[in-house]
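The instructor's notes for this session suggest beginning with a concrete chain rather than abstract definitions. Hand out the sequence below and ask the class to guess, before any prediction is shown, which regions might be ordered.
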Amino acid sequence: MTRRAVVVGTGHYLPERVVENAEFEAMPELETSDEWIRTRSGIERRHFAAEGETTSDMAAKAAARALADAGLTTGDVDAIIVATSTPDLTFPSAATMVQAKLGMTNGFAFDVQAVCAGFVYALANASALIASGQANRVMVIGAETFSRIMDWTDRGTCVLFGDGAGALLLEAQEQPGANTDRGILSTDLNSDGRYKDLLYVDGGVSATQSTGHLRMQGNQVFRHAVEKLASTANTALDRAGLSAADVDWIVPHQANIRIIQGTAKKMGLSMDNVVVTVQDHGNTSAASIPLALSVGKERGQIKDGDLIVTEAIGGGLAWGAVVVRW
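After discussion, reveal the predicted structure:
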């Protein structure tokens, strides 16, 4: 028998404010249009956090919904991992703030920072904690307020990002040890710091003592994304003794519809096998995969027993994939 990290609950939260592309069209300094945004990204709208609404606020709401979905309470959870690049404060971690907001006084909590790949990295960490016996249940959350680091004069970035949070509750379960098991079957993590300048924020505690704004070389990120995402997904599948033909759903990082389409094509899969939410959420960085998983389950797309591949790439560059049977 093998100890696996099995998904037992999902939840997500989106801020009330919905920002349609038309709002950017009305900003003359951007010189953009709804058609320009849709054509290049597939994004139609996104959500922005309200004034005073923080990353940990949204994360706690998503986590509470995942707990309710699982029929469990905070006393049943051993650890919280929050994947975010936009924490409330430099420290303490957003995860400990979520722990307090949930009324959880047991266990431990910490953040993972791998930008858009953050949730994949967090899942890998949670799986390792469960497999090693250090935790029995781990709440894994992706949450971001990227609207707070946008340069509103840069149409190449500010129209692409949104805010939100998604959560998965993972539970240790004994499984036969085959690739037909439920739970996380394999992971693949990668990074290459030589590509820092392709996607970064130009502020930080040590360098500038400021928050800074997001900067991106979109064409270069796109060039790396499709190849690296397909490669990491196939590597993770191979580690589980599976192939793309076994996949029921790709649940990718929701950055750009063209990247999503290109990755599916490179893997030899139809878009009918892809959960897509980018049109409604924009790029929510580390929140995008858990948001898409929760929405996919809510829609009735994702069902028990389905084989799912999640993959993401973000600043660093950092990228990776997780294979999980629902």
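Then share the key points. Residues 218-239 form the longest helix (22 residues). The CA atoms of residues 60 and 98 lie 5 Å apart.
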